[in-house]
Design goal:
With 380 residues, the protein is of the alpha/beta class. The protein contains 15 helices and 15 strands.
């Protein structure tokens, strides 16, 4: 089968990692994959190392910020016009590569679905994100989105939370299926009990710096913890800095809360598994995580995961069994959970062990790629 994969960004991001690793596994089933990126980016380095064929076709999202100015709306109109001009390029590639299935890797792209539908090609749409709730954007027209989503042959939701989010978009509910992301277990599995062994408790929050990922909640919680006399903590913020206003806010907050000495920002680090091995606690503070690849990676890395009680995080963490949940938006509750973990180290070790084995047994990449291959076969 010749399958073409369209992705919205070219960064070494969670959604692209999931897609590329899926493709590598699917090649074992004689899938001939081609990837289309919108521009050059560090994900392409990973693609080239794995000898995967790719094209670059400029495409823009059909979204705009929830709080859009007239300037934002005008920009979107121009981008949609440019997209219209790219239809011919996409159509040529589909014909040249004798494509059997189009696989769209996220909800931000719509153009491949329109072109593929007109070309009579089957379309699989991978829905991976809460566009509004977790990323602060909105599709410009729900009516139009509903029309386009229904052109897909099948749609994959990466969690029950995402399934529920997109359910109402589909007239034929059988088009939508839930297939959890898969993680390469060997990449992260680490069964040495490293957590809570040292005097300093290392707390990591690995996420792009943005309001919806909740770094500010952890900073307020840190202030609360320190004021209660627990000062043997160190916070690491790891993630891309692509929102200047939020970065300024975080920088200012560090000064106002007077916790600079407890916090480091290390930027984006591709080798996050090594950082996790040095961390005791990983915090997932998102408003609404779609799945939680980072949650599973942290569990596999033998870290205690403390996450907000929303979205995919709530599906993955069973409170006091394989992690701890706190009330999203309540930094005092987050602080209490961190303090509880520090004071109850023995209990936490059991929770960490449960998390590691839970992640290992339920979210293997083999389960993921087998399910998706079977979905492809059913479309033939």
């Amino acid at each position: 089968m010749n399958i073409i994969y369209f992705t919205y960004d070219s960064n070494y991001s969670g959604s692209n990692i999931s897609m590329i690793k899926l493709i590598i596994e699917l090649k074992k089933y004689n899938i001939n994959p081609i990837i289309v990126f919108p521009k050059k980016g560090d994900a392409i380095d990973f693609v080239e190392k794995n000898n995967l064929k790719y094209y670059i076709i400029k495409q823009y999202s059909w979204t705009m910020p929830i709080k859009s100015s007239m300037y934002d709306k005008t920009k979107l109109i121009i981008k949609l016009f440019i997209n219209d001009l790219q239809k011919i390029k996409i159509k040529k590639i589909l014909k040249k590569e004798h494509i059997d299935i189009i696989h769209i890797n996220n909800a931000y792209l719509y153009l491949p679905c329109i072109v593929g539908n007109k070309s009579g090609i089957k379309i699989v749409w991978h829905l991976r994100e809460f566009i509004e709730e977790d990323q602060g954007n909105v599709i410009f027209s729900k009516k139009y989105a509903t029309k386009v989503f229904n052109k897909a042959t099948k749609a994959i939701a990466i969690s029950d939370a995402i399934y529920d989010k997109y359910y109402d978009y589909f007239f034929n509910k059988n088009k939508l299926v839930r297939i959890y992301n898969g993680i390469d277990i060997n990449d992260f599995y680490y069964n040495k009990n490293h957590a809570f062994k040292n005097k300093i408790i290392n707390i990591l929050i690995p996420a792009t710096l943005m309001c919806e990922k909740g770094q500010h909640e952890l900073l307020y919680a840190t202030k609360e913890i320190v004021e209660l006399g627990i000062k043997n903590i160190h916070i690491t913020l790891a993630g891309r800095n692509i929102y200047p206003d939020y970065f300024k806010y975080i920088t200012k907050l560090l000064q106002e809360l007077k916790i600079n000495t407890y916090v480091d920002y290390i930027g984006f680090n591709r080798n996050i598994k090594e950082i996790m091995k040095k961390s005791d606690i990983v915090c997932i503070c998102s408003k609404l995580e779609a799945f939680g690849r980072t949650t599973i990676e942290a569990m596999l890395s033998n870290c205690l995961v403390i996450g907000s009680n929303t979205g995919g995080t709530r599906e993955l963490i069973k409170n006091n069994y394989n992690g701890l949940l706190y009330r999203q938006g309540d930094y005092k509750d987050l602080a209490n959970k961190i303090i509880y973990a520090i004071l109850e180290k023995k209990k936490m070790q059991k929770i960490i062990n449960n998390g590691r084995e839970f992640a290992k047994n339920k979210f293997s990449s083999k389960k993921n790629y087998t399910s998706i291959y079977n979905l492809y076969k059913a479309l033939k």
